[in-house]
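Appendix C reproduces, verbatim, an entry submitted by the partner laboratory led by Prof. M.T., so that reviewers can inspect both the input and the predicted structure.
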Amino acid sequence: MYQPLADELRPRKLSEVYGQEEILGEGKMLRRMIDSGKIPNLIFYGPSGTGKTTVANIIADATQRKLYKLNATTASTADIREIVSQLDTLMAPNGILLYLDEIQSFNKKQQQSLLEHIENGKITLIASTTENPYFYVFNAILSRSTVFEFKPLTKEAVRKAVDRAVAHMAQKLELTVTSEEGALDHISSSCGGDVRKALNAVEAIFNAARTGDTELCIRLEDAKAVTQRSAMRYDRGGDNQYDCLSALMKSMRGSDPDAAIHYLARFLEVGDLPSCCRRILCSASEDVGLAYPMAVPIVKACVDSALQLGMPEARLPLAEAVLFLATAPKSNSSYNAIAAAMKDIHAGKLGNIPRELQNVHADSAGQEREQGYLYPHDFPNHWVKQQYLPDVLKDARYYEYGDNKIEQAARKYWEEIKKPL
């Protein structure tokens, strides 16, 4: 039966686990828990290929409890009930260790079905997830669990796993193996910190060896062929996408053109034009705003061009838009103004619209009344003092001029016009 190399070489003890020193290093909390054998409910959070399942298996091997494994993408509440029934029939006198992979795929009801049993300790839960558990895991489960974050492995840690895999395959296939300079480093750095991807690449290279060969040279060209885009971590609708969107927006806002163009390149690499275009359009108003009002039509033109062109040419107008926004003067005065106004609206501060501003209408049948509205264009400089806000808000101040050239020019203009005679 075929067994993937990544599973064949899965570490069986902590000393074989590469990386994750922040939680598994000597003296670190998770390492101490495992060494003591006293395992609480745990949630392992992090991207694929970083050791979550491996560490859970190591814990399972070290416990005296009956082990069950479920994947939440295919499991159901009936599977949970079946496991719980083992407690009732005394088939698991020491309790049960349940490893639940991809717990974010369980809905609230399914997660709640575990509560009673993890509360009394009859079931010890070890759950893993690639998504942020504070968004996807029911709060009652979180409050009964300890969360550990698994991070992408460094290139150096992945290289140790790659070297081990190459040695294993060379022995297994009885091959004398050499490698071109940079080939194994390329595999180690192109997997995005995902050991499974790196080992899959190694396995692909060995599988391509011709039957009967006694020697194999791992060429840099072959290493590039089997890795391709594997360094990219991108799950549309998942944490990776939203983290990248956040980073793009904040880099433009922070006036860092190099970081901004980097995050744009990530979206272009996976072909997600709609998501990055939306962020770019938003930044034009939210972060540049009135400091450079023409940013909106300029960026809109770039985005429209990109969507009409499609990839790969779309990268050109989008790069122009991102670099333009990152280097443009910034103002969030319009963002602050609308946020303050909506805060009052949500708080119920409405009041009646001043009579002068209402549409001219009859107060009684057959009659219309002059409402007292002063038409600004009939006055010098097209302005006249007049109350526009409702009485309950007549002294409200929502807009504050930004400290940029354009808004300060507008401020001085209106101060001169509105100053008392």
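Residues 155-172 form the longest helix (18 residues). Additional entries are available on request from the coordinating office.
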